[in-house]
Structure formats: structure tokens, C-alpha cells
Amino acid sequence: FSPEDVTVVFVLGGPGAGKGTQCSRLVRDYGFTHLSAGDLLRAEQDRPGSQFGDLIRDYIKNGQIVPMEVTVQLLENAMAAAMGADPAQVQAGKGDLSGRKGKFLIDGFPRKLDQAVKFEEAVCPARFVLFYDCPESEMERRLLERGKTSGRADDNADSIRKRFRTFVETSMPVVEYFARQDRVITVDARPEPDDVYRKTQQELTGRLG
Ligand code: UP5
Ligand code: MG
Q1: How far is the CA of 17 from the centre of ligand 1 (A)?
Q2: Cis link prior to 110 (omega < 30° from 0)?
Q3: How confident is the model over 5-34, as pLDDT tens digits?
Q4: 45 Cβ neighbours under 8 A, 6+ residues apart
Q5: What ipTM does this complex have?
Q6: CB within 6 Å of ligand 1 — which residues?
Q7: What number does the ligand 1 atom closest to the CA of 107 have?
């Protein structure tokens, strides 16, 4: 996809930082398409006939990062579909996406340095990164609370601990990589959702368009 036609913003932050919560507000007000890598993986896991179902289930439960071939493919397909193209045609190199426009929030991806490099090379460079910064104690509180009703297989104390470890060891280096390139907007994720959103909007002023 060409960056002239397609706008990509990566939305990053630890597990439970509020990425999904803020993305839904941004979708409402700015006309983005929201693509959560985690949601796409969970949908693929539950898709009858998926060859990756068991693999995805296993990785998510253990808070580990699913091999990027799977995730990049799901994101690319979802982007093509959102722009009205047939993903199968695009994969076969036959779909013509030139001139199609799209604005995407890519939530929870890239989580590993090689994914960041690969995606920007193979799919589309990101405009910038929105990073929601939240202490672990607060993220843990939110996830345990959500776990009472979410049905998510990774919203339990054991999986949460593993997700935090992966975030610190593997995903924070991605944020630091973009920060070294001056491409990160950091937003304090501790306040109430509406306050975090107001801050997000202030930071975005002048950076979209
Ligand atoms: N909440 C939100 N904002 C709040 C606020 N300001 N104050 C108080 N409460 C707030 O929010 C989490 C909870 O907190 C909700 O109950 C919300 O109401 C409340 P949410 O907006 O859902 O936070 P989010 O950051 O989206 O949390 P999520 O749990 O989705 O983050 P993860 O990054 O852990 O989950 P994700 O779905 O992205 O990934 C899950 C797994 O998929 C990964 O662990 C990994 O195994 C796999 N994965 C990959 O392998 N590769 C990928 O590229 C992506 C995922
Ligand atoms: Mg989420």
C-alpha cells in the first residue's frame, strides 16, 4: 500500500493500558478503521477450518507473540477488505489496490522489532505511534476486573504475568525503536478514559491530514 493513499497509526501500550478503549473513540471521531491484531488472531483461532487455531490459542494463553507471518497476513487481508478489495486476489498478486484510500489504527501491533520492520517494508510505513503509558499495577487491576466477565483466556493472574513479561522484554524495545526515530506520541493512560482521550486529541492536532 502506498503511504499517500493509506494512513497507518500504530497504537501500542501494555496489556490493559486502554488501547481498544481509545481506538473506539478515535474511530467515532476521525473515521479510522480499527484493526486490533489480538482481535484478528482470536477470530482466526475460532474460524472453523483454520490451520492456526491451536497454535494461536497456545500463544495467547502463554502471553507469547504469535509468529508474525500469521499476524501480518491477517492485518493485510483486513486492510484489503476494508478498502473494498478481495483479499484472495490481493494475496495472489492480482488485486489492484492502487488509488484506494484507507485510514487504519493498528492496535497491539507490532509487538516485536522484526514485525515492525517487516510490516513497514512489506505493507505500509506508519505515520506515527500512539503509545499509552500505564503502570503494571493499574493494568493488572483493569485486567483482573475485566476477567470477571470478558471470557478472554488470557485475563487471569497467570497469563497476565506472562503478558507483562513479554511486553517488557519484547514489545517495549519496539516503542524505543520508534522513539529513537521521533515517531512516538506518548499519552499517560492512568486517568479516566475520557481524560486520556482528551489528551490524545490534543496530541493528534496537526498530526493527521
Ligand atoms: N479501561 C480502559 N481504559 C481505562 C481507563 N482509562 N481507566 C480505567 N479503566 C480503563 O482496556 C482494558 C480494561 O480496562 C477494560 O475493561 C477497559 O474498560 C478498562 P482495553 O481498552 O481493552 O485495553 P487494551 O490495551 O486494549 O488491553 P488488551 O487486553 O486488549 O491488551 P493486550 O495487548 O494484552 O491484548 P491484545 O488483544 O492486543 O493481544 C492479546 C494477545 O494476542 C497477546 O498477548 C499475544 O499473545 C497475541 N498477539 C500476538 O501474538 N501478536 C500481535 O501482534 C497481537 C497480539
Ligand atoms: Mg485490546
Answers
A1: 6
A2: yes
A3: 899 999 999 999 999 999 999 999 999 999
A4: 52, 53, 56, 57, 60
A5: 0.99
A6: 13, 15-21, 36-38, 41, 59-60, 63-66, 71, 108-109, 111, 142, 146, 154, 163, 192-193, 196
A7: 38
